[in-house]
C-alpha cells in the first residue's frame, strides 16, 4: 500500500490517502463507492491491468486505510484529493472512473479542475447529477431518505450496514452471482470506515448538485447503471446524467442492482474495455 500526503492539513498533519498502483500504460483511476474502499474493485483491477492499463485505486479520506480526519467530506474537499493524487503521480491522459458516490468526485473534479489531464470519464451506478428532490429537481429522492440513513447509522451502524449490504447487491435476486461471504466482507469494510465520515458523506452524496459540473464535461463519457438499482435508482441518476452530459454513452444493465462491480462484473468489464479502447 502506498500513501499520498494531500495538501489538506488537520491538526498540523497532512491527510494521507492510501492507494494502489498496478500495471503500465494509460492510467485509469477507479474511485470507490460509499461506504466501501478500493477493495470493491477486485474484479476490475486485474482485468484492466491484464488489458494493458495502469490502474490506480485509492481509499477516500475517512475510509479504508486512508486518514480519518474529523472534517473535509464535502465534494470540493474530495475533488481536491483527486487533484492532489493526479498531480503527485504526474498523470496525464487519465481515464477517471467513479462508482456511486465516486461519480460525484469525477463530476466535481471536472467542474473545478477541467479536463486538461482527463481523456475519458466513467460514471457507474453514480449519484450524479443530483439525488435530492427539490422544486427544480422533481422525481428524485426525498430528504427524509437521507435523514433516515443518518439516523440508522447513528443508532446502530453495524446493523444499518448489514441491511444496506444486502440491498447493495439485491442479494435475494443475485445469490447465483454474489456470495454471502462477499456481502459479509463488504460489511466488514463498511464498519472499518470512520463513523463521522460515513455520516458526513450521506449529506455530501445526497444533497450535492452536480448539474453545473455535468455541463462542463467535454471528454467521451460512459454512464453505466443497473435498472434494478435499489440504492440509486437509474431514473434519478443515470438517465438524467445522460441527458445533461453531451454525447454520453448510456448503458443500462438489465436486472442489475447497485453493486454491478460484484454481480455483473463480466458484463461491466466488457463495456469498460470497449469504451476505453475505442
From TrEMBL:
Domain of life: Bacteria
Residue span, AB hydrolase-1 domain: 27-263
Coiled coil regions in record: none
Entries under Pfam families matching the protein: Abhydrolase_1
InterPro entries attached to this UniProt entry: AB_hydrolase, AB_hydrolase_1, AB_hydrolase_fold, Epox_hydrolase-like
Protein name as it appears in the record: Arylesterase
UniProt source species: Psychroflexus planctonicus
Source species taxonomy: Bacteria, Pseudomonadati, Bacteroidota, Flavobacteriia, Flavobacteriales
Amino acid at each position: 500500500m502506498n500513501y499520498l500526503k494531500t495538501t489538506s492539513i488537520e491538526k498540523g498533519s497532512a491527510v494521507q490517502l492510501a492507494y494502489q498502483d498496478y500495471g503500465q500504460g494509460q492510467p485509469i483511476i477507479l474511485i470507490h463507492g460509499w461506504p466501501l474502499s478500493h477493495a470493491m474493485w477486485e474484479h476490475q483491477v486485474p482485468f484492466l491491468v491484464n488489458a494493458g492499463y495502469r490502474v490506480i485505486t485509492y481509499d477516500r479520506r475517512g475510509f479504508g486505510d486512508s486518514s480519518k480526519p474529523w472534517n473535509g467530506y464535502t465534494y470540493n474537499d474530495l475533488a481536491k484529493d483527486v487533484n492532489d493524487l493526479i498531480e503527485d503521480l504526474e498523470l496525464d491522459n487519465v481515464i477517471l472512473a467513479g462508482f456511486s458516490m465516486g461519480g460525484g468526485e469525477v463530476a466535481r473534479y471536472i467542474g473545478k479542475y477541467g479536463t486538461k489531464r482527463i481523456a475519458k470519464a466513467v460514471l457507474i451506478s453514480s449519484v450524479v447529477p443530483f439525488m435530492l428532490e427539490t422544486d427544480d429537481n422533481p422525481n428524485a429522492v426525498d430528504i427524509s431518505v437521507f435523514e433516515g440513513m443518518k439516523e440508522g447509522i447513528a443508532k446502530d451502524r453495524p446493523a444499518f450496514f448489514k441491511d444496506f449490504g444486502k440491498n447493495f447487491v439485491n442479494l435475494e435476486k443475485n445469490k447465483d452471482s454474489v456470495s454471502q461471504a462477499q456481502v459479509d466482507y463488504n460489511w466488514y469494510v463498511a464498519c472499518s470506515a470512520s463513523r463521522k465520515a460515513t455520516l458526513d458523506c450521506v449529506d455530501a452524496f445526497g444533497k450535492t448538485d452536480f448539474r453545473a459540473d455535468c455541463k462542463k464535461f467535454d471528454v467521451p463519457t460512459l454512464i453505466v447503471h443497473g435498472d434494478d438499482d435499489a440504492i440509486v435508482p437509474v431514473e434519478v441518476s443515470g438517465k438524467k446524467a445522460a441527458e445533461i452530459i453531451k454525447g454520453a454513452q448510456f448503458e443500462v444493465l438489465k436486472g442489475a442492482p447497485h453493486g454491478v462491480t460484484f454481480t455483473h462484473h463480466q458484463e461491466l468489464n466488457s463495456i469498460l474495455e470497449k469504451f476505453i479502447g475505442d
